[in-house]
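Hi X.,

You mentioned you wanted examples for the new student's onboarding notes, showing what a folding record looks like when two proteins sit in one file. Here is a clean example. The first protein comes first, with its sequence line followed by its structure tokens.
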Amino acid sequence: MAIVNAEDTSIPQPAEITVLPIALPEKTGIPKWARGIGAFLLSILMAMVVFGAILLLLGKNPVDVYTSILKGTLGSTYGLSEIVVKMIPFILCALAVAIPAQLGLITVGGEGQIYIGAIFAGFVALQLGDSVSTPILIPLLVIAGMLGGALWGGLCGVLRAYLNLNETISSLLLTYIASLTMDFLVSGPLKDHSRMAQGQAYSPNFPANAMLPTFFDTRISLGIVFALAGVVFYFWLFKYTRWGYKMRVVGGNPEAAIRSGIKIGRYIVIAMMLGGAFAGLSGMIEVIAIQGRLRGGISNGYGYVGFLVAWLAAQRPGGIVFMAALLGLISFGGDTLQFANNLPASTVNILMALILFFVLRNQGLRARQEKS
């Protein structure tokens, strides 16, 4: 047998292998995160262009409309404070959608959870407001509001986990029951029967010590702290806890979760209860900090806007805060449309819908490109 000398230069040697760096540069030279931000801004611009075309059809100058919105919101201290006020329910209701979404659940029941949370907190305020000091009463109101929303959301979770009832349908239908329950209570058992409230369907005013503190002579309440703390909790839950990991496993691969011994039904109920708790907290803040009493129609569509915020942000914690601020600006700008441009305040809903359409379109296209 012939022995070959490895150093013999007459034998062809393998070509030298060049080791590439681990982080390959993007084909376009632009980082992925920058391209994502650019695509998002382009989606917003496209929505504004289409909305501008609609304004032209209505005989309005789009430039004047957009200018008046910016002046009425970002151009004054009051406008900025009202954007923050809008952000509170938007963030909390977005969390009510984002947490179940980690398990692949689509819930639109934030509206109903707001009402039930408000009812629980309002009942506690009316019963204990005169006998309990503020430092003790406020935590009780927070617990009551979150408990009400958690029970209402948990009901949807039980129906989905153990009766296989679609959570989107059940949460939507339960919203009507919740709002009608509020109407019944403020028209009957909890109605204010004083002479000043004759013919009005609302509860007596809450005691002064039951009201949330506000900041800087504005309507910005302690609720903004609760909302931001909720975002931090959401990030921590799904980033660093075993529960969050198991819920993401359930959402990513239910079959693998079952085989690994994860009880899917339990985590569905837990996720729905956690989400409902945040929406219930939003209801508590609305009646305790803003309304000062129970009455019908307190939500103003906050649950549905929270749904938009969660999906526009792709359930990312930082994105939820940013989108809540953006939609808060647009929502408060609806009042400017009404007074300065003689347009219905609900016109901004068209702009919100267009933003949702173009942003989700962009997310779908990016997902398709990544798969290919």
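Then the second protein repeats the pattern, sequence line and then tokens:
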Amino acid sequence: MSSPFNHIFKDSPSGDHLFYAWFSSMHTRIDLIFYGKENEDFYLATTQSIQQILDNLEQTGNYFDPSSELSLINRMANIKPIQVSNHLYHIIKLCQTFNTQTLGCFDIAINSPDYEQGLLDAVLLSEESHTVFFEKANILLDLSGILKGYALDCVRDYLVSEHISNALINMGNSSVLALGDQPHGKGWKIDFQHGSDHTIVLHDECLTTSGNNTNERKHIISPFTHSYVEGKREIAVVTESGALGEALSTGLFVANVAQRMSILEHLPIHAIYEQ
């Protein structure tokens, strides 16, 4: 069950209202802003629906929760094919595609005990039966590097279905979806992390950030060295898809110069920022 959330609703005589809500989900703070002509009750219901979308995705793909659907396939998929939900099937399929497109720099099998490059090729998906099977033992899939971006895409689909055209969805300042416009101008102005001079205007786009915001922070493992990438450095990318953005920002953070040039040549990226 979703936890309660806080919200502010500002009514306007012009009929253009502003609704702001915040709550915790997927181990981070979620901030929502809606700008439009709908009433407060409509936006309250919209926020509750978004909470449910995020909670469901967390139960599907939480690597650290033994009761999640992802944990089930990590335990059992090397024994027999496991039928999975549409979301989990689609996420894993996307990750295999992104692994290829990023030249192996983005790899959700990186935490496997016997990791080697190309291990994702041993994850077999059946389109017909919607099953996942691991051809090798000791494969562990970790969706932490893509789940928030995929969630943004799901939230976007929901907002479009509800005819909400002006919205900002901020997941912990590292995964952001901007639809339409803010009250005082075109698009939504986003600061690229703390202490940065970059101000980015997003319009029907996602901004995703990966990296280390301090010299002490280390959390992204290179598939090539199998060690943490060290040093204070962050990469943000602007893309249409949040899932693609998550894979790209992580992949580019890991990639060397030649790999980065090749990746950027072939993928639909709107902009890249680095500090």
